[in-house]
Amino acid sequence: METRPYFVFGDLLANALAGSVVGLAMAALFGPGWNMILAMFVGMALGMVIAMPIAFPLGALFGAMEVMVPVMTTGMVAGMVVSMAAAMEPVSLIRGAQLGLYSGIVTLLACYAANAWIRRRASRWTS
Amino acid sequence: MDLVTRAKWDKAAANFDVMAGYGPEKRWEPYKRALFSKMGDGRILFLAIGTGLDVPFFPPGKNITGIDISEAMLEKARPRVAKYDGHLELQQMDVHEMPFDDATFDQVFTSCTFCSVPRPVEGLKALRRVLKPGGELHMFEHTGSRYFPFSLMMNLMTPLSRRFGPEMNRRTVENVLNAGFHLDRVEHVYLDVVKTISAHT
Q: Is residue A59 a part of any domain in this protein?
């Protein structure tokens, strides 16, 4: 797990920012008129697309794959969560950004956990 | 020489250090230093030395030949190479057309290289050719992931990323084996995406 404060701060910043921006966009785009399953898939795809331009500049500051992979995942998760919520009931822009931010932090923690688990596994494999 | 690949990296050279020179290098510095500490006293080939961002991490006093397909990249590398406390020469060449004799080098090192070599197995076979029997290959690479959702994202990103630089879904460990190397160790740096790979001929 990353313990250097500069990079931990960068990871938090990148995922919180990506989550908030994606959440805001999803709250603006989706509403109760949407089919929830359709909203989920469209939201996931759009979330990744929106997260990509956020990942590149922050990656230059805080690390390439270590920023890009969680931020893209955050885009997907925040896109899914907020679009589904907005398809069920109206979600304000602020609430959308807030849900996206929470999604970003949870996703980052999940990526830290996945990293710790994968790195502990046997090293002799191919990919 | 692969002119398409050369043109791509010549173009990328102008902004390469802006994107890769700070965050990624700082983040990966401990792992790269550990890998490069395996540099021995024999002849070393460093493939795709780029703008020389890794040169400050090389241990001093080594005999290294650094090659890259892009002259624009090598031009940026020269000031860093000039500061190296050891023998480090640069040559522009394509890994697929290396003019070195068979069994020239004791070790080969790569750093984020085989995400970009267009024909990776052929490139690795070319490295095996120039390595002495028992010669070592040490790589710091990013690859695709076998885990969802990371695998999905990296597959989706690759068509875009390959236009500007690397591919995100390479199976480099498998490629090393397919090129005829014997795998010694794979160490994961981040998820199963960033890793060091050590192998021998």
A: yes
Task: Answer yes or no: is A31 within a domain.
Answer: yes
A2 to chain B, minimum CA–CA distance in Å? 9
Q: Which residue has the tokens 């003019």?
A: B99
What's the number of domains chain A is made of?
1
Which residue is associated with the tokens 């981040």?
B190
A80 lies within 8 A of chain B by CB: no
Structure confidence by residue, pLDDT tens digits, A37-95? 999 999 999 999 999 999 989 999 999 999 999 999 999 999 999 999 999 999 999 99
- Residue A108 lies inside a defined structural domain of this protein: yes
**Structural domain containing residue A23:** 5-112
> What ipTM was assigned to the predicted interfaces of this complex?
0.86
Instruction: Identify the burial level of B86 via C-beta atoms within 10 angstroms of its C-beta, where 0-12 means exposed, 13-18 middle and 19 or more buried.
Output: middle
**Confidence (pLDDT) at A35:** 96
- Show residues of chain B in contact with A126, CB under 8 Å: 171, 173-174, 177
Angle between helices A5-29 and A36-62 (to 10 degrees): 150
Tens of pLDDT, residue by residue over B15-25, are 999 888 899 99
Rounded to the nearest angstrom, the gap between the alpha carbon of residue B158 and the centroid of all alpha carbons in its chain is 18
Torsion of CA B38, B186, B145, B9, to 10 degrees: 30
Question: What number of helices (H) and strands (E) belong to chain B?
Answer: 6, 7
Smallest CA-to-CA distance from B42 within B58, B63, B65, B60 is with B63
Q: Is A122 part of any domain? A: no
Domains annotated for chain B, with CATH where assigned, are 3-200 (3.40.50.150)
- Measured CA to CA, the distance from residue A7 to residue A61 in angstroms comes to 9
Task: Say if the Cβ atoms of B188 and A60 lie within 8 Å.
Answer: no
Tell me, what's the pLDDT at A62?
95
DSSP per-residue string spanning B151-180:
HHHHHHHHHHHHHHS--S---HHHHHHHTT
